[in-house]
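Quarterly update from the structural biology core.
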Amino acid sequence: MGNVRNTAAILSLLAMASPAGAQTIGGQLQSIVTNVWNPLFLLVAVGTALLGVFLFFRGMMKLVEAAQSGGRGGFGPGITHIVIAAFLIALPDAAGIGMMSVFGSARGGGTLDAGSLDYNDGGMGGDFLSAITGGLANVGAVDNCLVSAGPATCMAKNLATNVVPMAIMMLFAMVFIVGLIAFASAIADIAKASERGDNSKGHVTRIVTAILLMNAPLFFTMMTTTLLNAGDSPITATGFNSNSPMLSYPTGSPIAVVQNFTQLIGHSFTILTFFGAWAFVRGIFMIKAVAEKGGQSGSYGMAATYIVAGVLLANAKFSACLVLGTIGGANMGSGFCT
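Predicted structure, tokenized:
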């Protein structure tokens, strides 16, 4: 009897939901982003600022050399170095200008200024990640699926509520850093090209691609609206939207098995959102690779395929509605079109 009571007590403890951050993937991702992103952003900003100072002095020396030689070689390379140096020293402002120029808006409330991501009188400080994303994603608690009536649904729920929201946020947060580095690299390469007279590396494409990376959620929202004309997408300008109706599969049946099945479908929509975001970002990286290396890294057509596939996959419910409604009529796709 004692063993039975002990077993029952253990099972009752296991049945309780675990805390959101208690040794779960979502909790670990949240910890990594919290501890890494701000220092990494500072490192990039300070590193590019130092590079900008170096290019500024290099540009001044080139102007002096051109003046001493009577203008032979031109003043263009020196002026270019100084302009590029100004962009690198004030990289957050330059990135904000680029994003506003392409999209008319930008992450971080539309501007990157002294109140959020720029230098200020108090030095480099502040929660830059919060300024960009609006705050950390919610990491849901996990349930014990060993004692669940629907283990598959339970495991899908744990992935959908604990892992996916933070994984999508981490993906876009790190892609922002990569885009910022790519933006600085493309600007710095313009200075190098001015010395060689080589303008064949697609600098404009690289800069635009970097801006797309820094604003991947906003670009995703624009593509969703353009391709699907769908509102309430699971991915918005600030990241993952867990309240999107695209993440649920409604049913009017009171049968428990049917309810578990519909919940499993809904959680599957959430999980597919991450893979859609991953494919979408991969497409942007392919554009960047083609601009830098040419046809060796694929083609713009292949990149566009990844981008479109990512949008369709992240909006799997709406995509299924379109396909099933086209093949079998409105009744076949009714569950996906609600």
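Residues 20-144+182-196 form one domain.
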